[in-house]
Amino acid sequence: MSVAGAMSLHQRIRTDIEGHIRSGAWPPGYRIPYEHELMVQYGCSRMTVNKVLTMLADAGMIERRRRAGSFVSRPHPHIEQVALDIPDIPIEVASRGHRYQFQLLHRRQRKPRRGLAHEAEIAEGGTVLALQSLHMADGRPFALEERLLNPVVAPQALEMDFSDTAPGSWLLQHVNWTRAQHRISAIGADAAQAQLLQVEPNTACLVIQRQTWRGDQPVTYVTQVFLGASYDLVARFSPGAR
User: Fold this and answer.
1) Longest dimension (CA), the chain
2) Residue 95: which residues within 8 A CB-CB, separation 6 or more?
3) Residue 31 φ then ψ, to 5°
4) 115-171: per-residue pLDDT in tens?
5) For the purposes of burial, counting CB atoms within 10 Å of the CB of 151, is it exposed (0-12), middle (13-18) or buried (19 or more)?
């Protein structure tokens, strides 16, 4: 089944609206179509449209005003330029003609480990949802992922087992972020990483550590270990670009 075919109607509506907002076609303050207009456009019920708008409002992308409609939110003052896009790995793999698979290795809600500042930040005084998983391409490991989620920002994640849904894809669809930080490094896979990636120890790998925030609240911290022979990092820029 194609990625588009697997997408539910409410996901499609949300993706369309988010696309208009992120592209700038619907700027801050723009009134998005009324519920009845969206119902006609997508041939769906008011419940479906309301669910989408509620999710977008919870994610901070739109503001719902009683009797006035829904409007694109004004940008948060802490929004920063992100040097790299945040890719949706399943879509990236499928778009290159490969068969994508996801394997959840470990899921646990726990306290942050002592001495790790990023875990304490994600926990916000409570717990983190820790997920270890493998991204696969054509039946072979493509990337090893260690992710921490903030249950305060994404309480719905506690109800997900993520056995067949990549957490990154789920987050992109359900939780808006306003700024992100990437740290990129190169390593030789250690014994544990090599075993999971099905390669020899010390095989060259690219590591991307990414943290995202929504306003001042941390959303997720993820470390992704990509096989060096399978991943290219490309930055596009032009003269005079900041």
Assistant:
1) 62
2) none
3) -85, 120
4) 899 999 999 889 999 999 999 988 899 899 999 999 998 899 999 989 888 999 999
5) middle
- Containing structural domain, residue 187: 89-230
Find the Cα–Cα–Cα–Cα dihedral 118, 188, 87, 128, rounded to 10°: -30
151 contacts 129 by C-beta, under 8 angstroms: yes
Comparing 46 with 94, the larger pLDDT belongs to 46
Q: Tokens at residue 37, please?
A: 């207009």
Would you tell me how many other CB atoms lie within 10 Å of the CB of residue 177?
A: 22
Residue 36 covered by a domain = yes
Residues 26, 116 within the same domain: no
3-state helix, strand, coil in the chain (%, to 5): 30, 30, 40
* Separation between Cα atoms, residue 111 and residue 109, nearest integer Å: 7
- Co-location of 95 and 192 in the same domain: yes
Question: Which pTM value belongs to this model?
Answer: 0.63
The 10s digit of each residue's pLDDT in 64-101 is 888 889 998 875 433 333 345 677 888 878 877 788 89
pLDDT at 240 over 70: no
